[in-house]
Design goal:
It comes from Candidatus Brevifilum fermentans. The chain contains 13 helices and 14 strands. It is of the alpha/beta class. The chain has a single domain, classed as NAD(P)-binding Rossmann-like Domain (Rossmann fold), CATH 3.40.50.720. It has a 7-stranded parallel sheet, with helices on both faces. Helix 1 packs across helix 9, helix 3 packs parallel to helix 5 and helix 5 packs parallel to helix 7. The chain starts with a strand and ends with a helix. The site of serine has 10 residues, from loops.
């Protein structure tokens, strides 16, 4: 008999690390981890199988279906916002065609299993695009349907994949003669703010100035923060982000009024980030050296998001506010890591 599994793509990334640690503690959870690079050794004994491969490799995905009964897909693989701007077309292929391949795999799996397959998708504040700083200040906490005009390839990809997910959930092959209206993909997405992990450093994002500043300070390295001190966006620590993914996946479908939910924890400026880091690591050598192009991207992201739908529908609430994030999680864990 084929084994019932949870498939995680992008398993070796920042979210993958956090998610594998949490899911592996749940009883009866078999994890199949997929990533383009070999899975971190520390995670290998927490998963049933890890596969080195690309979400664009249709043969590989086909083989996955043969060998496993996939009940839930956490599709985390993605090229982040800064990296995507260096080769937008390649990023589009990975971010959009990769998602399409996984959605297709979910449909196929659900047909074999006779029940819908959950598809959990991390979207981002990058799906928003606010044209000016005046608009950003006036917008305050934005709701999911507002300001959907992303300025990055990554943001466009995320917004479009949210729509793809909705389509596969509700309208897939709507004109086919054998279309029975049965749901096959149970699509659920979260728009995450900038994420900060104590265990890993991000690669290729534009909210990275926060976590990079912190990790550099703990390592005693010099760091040039690429945005102005007054720059503000929402952030969240990784344990809360993982909690959100797992909570949304576990929510009864009939409680969900949306496919895509904002969530947030705390909004702080780069200066506030600097002050907290400096207080914890007084020797830190952090300077502000603005990269205007990356600044523009961060300026287009909201300073805060309205997460009341997530709070109402699936009882979302972060465990870590700003103070607790730094004092109880980030600073002690990062200190220990680089000791
Ligand atoms: N944090 C991501 C980035 O900066 C956004 O999802 O690209």
């Amino acid at each position: 008999m084929r084994q019932k599994v949870v498939l995680i793509t992008g398993a070796n990334g920042e979210m993958g690390h956090g998610l594998i640690q949490v899911l592996s503690k749940q009883a009866d959870t078999n994890i199949v981890a997929l990533d383009v690079v070999p899975l971190d050794r520390a995670l290998r004994n927490l998963v049933s199988t890890y596969i080195v491969g690309d979400v664009l490799d249709q043969m590989l995905l086909g083989r996955l279906v043969v060998e496993h009964e996939i009940a839930i897909i956490y599709h985390l693989a993605s090229i982040l916002s800064t990296k995507a701007e260096y080769n937008p077309e390649t990023a589009h292929r990975i971010n959009v065609e990769g998602t399409l391949n996984l959605l297709r795999l979910a449909v196929e799996q659900s047909q074999w299993q006779g029940e819908s397959v959950k598809f959990i998708y991390p979207s981002s504040i990058a799906a928003y695009g606010i044209p000016t700083l005046k608009d950003k200040a006036e917008a305050g906490a934005v709701v999911e349907s507002d300001w959907n005009f992303p300025t990055t390839m990554y943001g466009c990809n995320k917004l479009y994949c949210e729509h793809l997910g909705r389509y596969y959930n509700s309208h897939y092959r709507q004109l086919a003669a054998d279309h029975d209206g049965k749901q096959t993909v149970d699509f659920r997405a979260i728009r995450f703010p900038g994420l900060i992990s104590a265990e890993t450093v991000p690669t290729g994002g534009t909210s990275d100035y926060g976590p990079e500043m912190l990790h550099a300070a703990a390592r005693g390295e010099e760091y040039n923060c690429f945005v102005r001190p007054e720059t503000i966006i929402p952030f969240m620590v990784m344990p809360d982000a993982i909690k959100a993914l797992v909570c949304l996946a576990a929510s009864p479908k009939n409680r969900l009024s949306k496919f895509v939910y904002n969530i947030t924890s705390f909004s702080i400026t780069a200066q506030q980030f600097f002050d907290i880091v400096k207080a914890a690591f007084p020797e830190a050598k952090i300077h502000f050296a603005v990269d205007e192009a990356r600044q523009k991207i961060v300026d287009s992201w909201p300073e805060c998001v309205d997460d009341s739908a997530a709070r109402n529908d699936w009882d979302w609430s972060p465990d870590y506010d700003c103070e607790r994030s730094f004092e109880e999680y980030l600073i002690p864990a990062i200190r220990k890591r680089y000791q």
